[in-house]
Design goal:
Number of strands: 8
Bound molecules: zinc ion
Number of helices: 15
Number of domains: 2
CATH topology of the largest domain: Dehydroquinate synthase-like, alpha domain
Strand content: 5-15%
CATH superfamily of the largest domain: Dehydroquinate synthase-like - alpha domain
């Protein structure tokens, strides 16, 4: 557990308790107005299966839903996790399985085959959906997402993270957001609980990312888009109650899947509104990217991001203990050792993090840590390490 002293959050409690990190409130608009604007202006077009238990039933639903959404001659990008769901899909002009090694070049190659299709439908995990987005961009046709995991908020975002063809380094690319997405509850309820925890963890970042966005705005570097801001906030508020309870396998039920799907889609929609990941990605994402670059992925993206939120919360002067309690409750990593990293490793990560996304101003660039400061910060967070 992190052990630093913490500053209390600055705004008032909601729902009878004071959360560790609250969404910063933009001036002028009262909160209730903000919520109405966020939920009516840009709500994501998602469908959650009526089927709650039978994946074959959900597959039939999906096939019908695809036809009704104009996908009569789809090109399918499907992982092995999506095979059962796609069994009832008809009219496919072609199919490809991205596997774990799909690159940008692989997606470009698939785009040529997809040009005869009317839509690209991706059915699978994050890599599969990211590949599908690039295939759709290359083919110049719409994209439909059918996630088989809820491990991050990229499902409805326009961002695709895929390795370069040569060198294997992953890049965040501006691609295309799905205009519709289908969430199969029987599929998602059977996904590993670690992926659901990571999905919640990715949204812990949102109030911190918004603080970073405000920093950039205050520095005159960027302009805040209110609709995107409030969609990002809304997605955090949806999962906020989950952070206060122990998240165990008993919590994984159809309603939870629906709620998490909505929250992740809403966060993706925030990104779609501005065309970048800015509303949901700040210093904590840079730290996670630096872990990937220096040591390779150590956990789900959302789990790494949630862990890195401890650092971001500390730099913002927020309630680090409270964020640590959230991570423990949800079952997310809260100590470098849980990611197989030492405190020294983490110092290297913090020094590397600002370079992972040049041009995105966050609390990391604001405080500009040198090595002694990074060492002191890591010691203050994990003194026992
Ligand atoms: Zn993320």
């Amino acid at each position: 557990m992190p052990g630093s002293s913490a500053t209390a959050p600055e705004s008032s409690a909601r729902n009878g308790f004071r959360p560790a990190v609250e969404v910063p409130v933009l001036p002028v608009e009262p909160l209730d107005t903000i919520r109405v604007v966020a939920s009516t202006v840009t709500s994501p077009r998602i469908t959650i299966s009526a089927a709650t238990d039978d994946e074959d039933e959900a597959a039939e639903e999906l096939a019908e839903w695809l036809r009704s959404n104009g996908a009569e001659r789809p090109f399918l990008v499907a992982s092995r996790h999506g095979q059962r769901l796609l069994q009832a899909v008809t009219g496919a002009t072609g199919a490809a399985a991205p596997g774990v090694h799909a690159t940008q070049g692989w997606a470009r190659w698939c785009s040529r085959s997809a040009r005869r299709a009317d839509t690209v439908v991706a059915i699978g995990g994050g890599r599969c959906l990211d590949a599908g987005k690039l295939v759709a961009v290359g083919a110049g046709i719409p994209f439909i997402a059918v996630p088989t995991q809820l491990s991050h908020d990229g499902v409805c975002s326009p961002v695709s993270v895929l390795p370069r063809t040569v060198g294997g380094v992953s890049e965040s690319l501006e691609a295309v957001a799905p205009h519709v997405a289908f969430f199969s509850r029987p599929t998602l309820i059977r996904s590993p609980i670690a992926s659901l925890r990571a999905g919640i963890g990715d949204l812990v970042a949102n109030p911190l990312a918004l603080r970073d966005w405000k920093l950039a705005s205050d520095a005159g570097l960027e302009r805040i888009d209110r609709a995107a801001w409030h969609l990002s906030a809304e997605s955090f508020w949806l999962v906020e109650p989950l952070l206060e309870e122990r998240f165990t396998s008993e919590c994984v039920e159809p309603d939870l899947i629906g709620l998490l799907a909505h929250a992740l889609a809403t966060s993706g929609c925030a990104m779609r509104t501005v065309g970048t990941s800015r509303p949901a990605s700040g210093a904590e994402h840079k730290i996670s990217h630096a872990i990937d670059e220096l040591f390779g992925p150590r956990a789900h993206h959302g789990a790494q991001v949630a862990f890195a939120s401890l650092v971001s919360a500390a730099l913002h002067g927020l309630d680090v203990e409270g964020v640590g309690r959230w991570l423990v409750n949800v079952g997310l990593p809260h100590h470098p050792h849980q990611l197989g990293l030492t405190n020294d490793d983490l110092v290297g990560v913090l020094l590397r993090a600002p370079n992972t996304r040049p041009g995105r101003f966050t609390i990391l660039e604001s405080v500009c840590l040198d090595r002694p400061e990074a060492e002191m910060l890591v010691r203050s967070l994990w003194s026992a390490g």
